[in-house]
Design a protein that fits this description.
It is a single chain. The chain has 15 helices and 20 strands. The chain has helices spanning 26-36, 50-53, 84-102, 115-124, 130-140, 229-247, 286-289, 321-339, 347-361, 392-395, 397-406, 416-425, 437-447, 452-462, 466-469, and strands at residues 11-15, 18-22, 172-175, 179-183, 265-270, 279-282, 304-308, 410-411, 414-415, 485-489, 495-502, 506-514, 520-526, 534-542, 548-550, 559-565, 571-580, 585-586, 600-601, 606-615. The chain has a five-stranded mixed β-sheet with strand order 3-4-5-7-6. The longest helix is centred in the first third of the chain and has 19 residues, at 84-102.
């Protein structure tokens, strides 16, 4: 699901495993983002050292340790958890709200799509009362009515049910080695006046009719082959996308047992811009729709996908029609691949890795760069595994870019590390380990000879200087993580203490500048224990030199005091990054699909204290 941030349309609010639409004003968006970023955090002081701060980083810190596998999957739901029926009803209300045109847009007016809203409905539909279950089946149905739910509409007024071909339309189908593409042709209406909407040809969903190759139109297909050029191009893009995933070692999308006319994954083309969508993929296997209920069976399942019928609407103006098709196909088909591992996987990693892979396949489009200011690169006080109203999860793709640049081993043109995570999260099939998202990441890093503590701390520090830390950071102008506090120490103000709290998988940065009379600095950090994810990183910026990391290993109680050279003539600043890489959860607590392992973190609101004092 490719989220586009809100302008005036509304916010996507994560509540108990689904998404709810709520209209808001722009000021409320900023307020909500600030609130989500941590109430304990004071506004960052002006940095004022950007050009110097972007000088890069050197050195490394000793291993801080890594917490063991918590293994605390408690029995029984949390006391305030919603019932299965309530969660399913919210999922239904969300999808019906999106269908009714309540989908939000970002500041550029680009629309959202609906994969995870539909996935939440599919995995919980069997908990609905009978009448609501019928409504869910219609929303989950394929545009041509050729899937297991059988239909996408029961009345004329429901034709724009996301995507639904009209009864009078004759769907066409063509296949390659990877997928089958379904579409309806654009034809002129032959009747006028008094004719029911369903009795005329389906011009709404029809694809551009041109079949002249590169001679005209928005797409260069194969001239005169009897297929619309747009269909030719979709086939080519899908062949590249699906073929790349296959060559990289990902599992093929499971067979849909002949629905849609073949065992291949079905791609439907329909008018989506009016629905506020780029595209979506939907798991529609009976085992999911009829049997998952609480979304805890962790099934491997097929899905079908829907893409826009031309990507030429003004809502898609950020990129060319072809570029929009490419990154949407890469993102959405990766969801289809993910569902083949675990349809009930944690929502944040579903979106973060699907957004990450867009740039791996289509490096020149750079659509995912627009999400960075909403994710951990800027909002470092928000847990990495957040799935929230601001689209934080889409910005979290940068963590997987960090990991795959750090551990770049590839197969078939894609980094191996992310594929190994999906194998570990699977509950059946080759390589499955039945792990939830953060657990899979932690174990994979151990396999790489490192720890989550160490890598998350490095990630946090890298985000202070992304232009030097990431291969495309400078070219794509990645935003950098800001400071929680900046203070100058001198004779008048010789000591500063900053107390705050950190939730799991977060970090904060503090800077101390040398003022008049500064010679030596005593720095004390008192925070989270290393066994629970605590790390402290200290860097020193000497005049005329790039920042350098110095050894600052906190003790088992999370404390460390160190005296540091702080002479004003040679030192510009000392910066402290305090990290809570905690990854302990109580799982299966009925917290919904947007929560890691549907549970609660056991590592939140950890108290931290940093004191900097001038000494002689």
């Amino acid at each position: 699901m490719r989220l586009r941030r809100t302008a005036l349309g509304g916010l996507l609010i994560a509540i108990s495993g689904t998404l709810v639409i709520a209209p808001v004003a722009p000021a409320e968006v900023a307020s909500a983002v600030a609130a989500a970023d941590g109430a304990d955090a004071a506004p960052a002081a002006p940095d004022g050292q950007t050009s110097q701060d972007d000088q890069g980083d050197q050195g490394d810190q000793g291993d801080q340790g890594d917490p063991g596998d918590p293994g605390d999957r408690s029995e029984g739901p949390a006391a305030d958890a919603q019932t299965e029926v309530e969660q399913a009803q919210e999922a239904l209300a969300t999808v019906e709200g999106l269908k009714a045109g309540e989908a939000p847009t970002d500041a550029q007016g680009a629309p959202v799509d609906a994969t995870l809203a539909l996935q939440a409905l599919a995995t919980q539909a069997s908990a609905l009362p009978r009448a609501q279950r019928k409504r869910a089946a219609r929303l989950l149905a394929r545009p041509a009515g050729d899937g297991p739910t059988g239909y996408c509409t029961t009345a004329q007024v429901d034709y724009y049910d996301y995507a639904c071909f009209k009864p009078s339309a004759t769907p066409n189908r063509t296949c390659n080695a990877e997928v089958c593409v379904h579409w309806v042709n654009t034809t002129a209406a032959t009747r006028a006046g008094g004719i029911a909407e369903g009795d005329i040809p389906d011009n709404t969903n029809g694809v551009p009719a041109d079949d002249d190759g590169s001679a005209g139109g928005a797409y260069a297909g194969v001239a005169g082959n009897g297929l619309p050029d747009y269909v030719d191009v979709v086939l080519g893009v899908m062949a590249n996308v699906a073929g790349t995933y296959r060559n990289a070692g990902y599992r093929p999308v499971p067979s849909d047992k002949g629905y849609g006319g073949s065992n291949k994954t079905d791609i439907y083309l329909a008018e989506l811009s009016s629905q506020g969508l780029y595209g979506y993929c939907v798991p529609d296997a009976p085992a999911v729709i009829e049997g998952d209920r609480s979304a805890t069976k962790h099934l491997s399942t097929w899905s079908y996908c829907v893409l826009d019928n031309d990507y030429t609407d003004s809502a898609y103006s950020r990129h060319t029609p072809l570029e929009n098709l490419q990154v949407t196909a890469a993102h959405e088909f990766f969801h289809a691949v993910q569902f083949g591992y675990d349809v009930d996987a944690d929502a944040w990693i579903l979106e973060a890795t699907a957004t990450w892979v867009e740039d791996e396949l289509y490096d020149d489009v750079n659509d995912n760069v627009t999400y960075l200011r909403y994710g951990p690169l800027r909002r470092n006080g928000q847990p990495l595994d957040t799935y929230d109203l601001s689209g934080f999860q889409y910005g979290s793709w940068i963590f997987f870019r960090y990991l795959t640049e750090r551990f770049p081993a590839e197969k078939g043109g894609l980094p191996v590390l992310v594929r190994r995570l999906w194998e570990a999260m699977a509950h059946s099939g080759p390589g499955h380990k039945s792990r939830y998202s953060v657990q899979a990441i932690r174990r994979e890093l151990v396999r790489q000879g490192t720890t989550l503590n160490k890598e998350f701390a490095r990630f946090a520090v890298a985000n202070r200087t992304p232009k030097q830390s990431y291969e495309e950071g400078a070219a794509n102008r990645y935003p950098h993580a800001g400071l929680l506090r900046s203070a100058t120490l001198d004779r008048r103000r010789s000591s500063v203490t900053r107390k705050f709290r950190l939730n799991h998988l977060t970090a904060r940065h503090l800077r101390f500048k040398a003022g008049s009379g500064a010679q030596r600095l005593r720095l004390t950090v008192d925070g989270t224990r290393p066994a629970q994810g605590g790390v402290a990183v200290v860097r020193i910026k000497r005049v005329g030199k790039p920042p350098k990391r110095i050894r600052f290993n906190i003790n088992p109680q999370g404390r460390r005091t160190k005296r540091i050279d702080f002479d004003r003539g040679t030192v510009q600043w000392v910066e402290v990054t305090v990290v809570n890489a905690g990854s302990r959860y109580r799982c299966d607590q009925g917290e919904g699909l947007t929560a890691t392992c549907q549970g609660v973190s056991l590592s939140d609101r950890q108290p931290q204290s940093v004191t900097a004092t001038l000494i002689r």
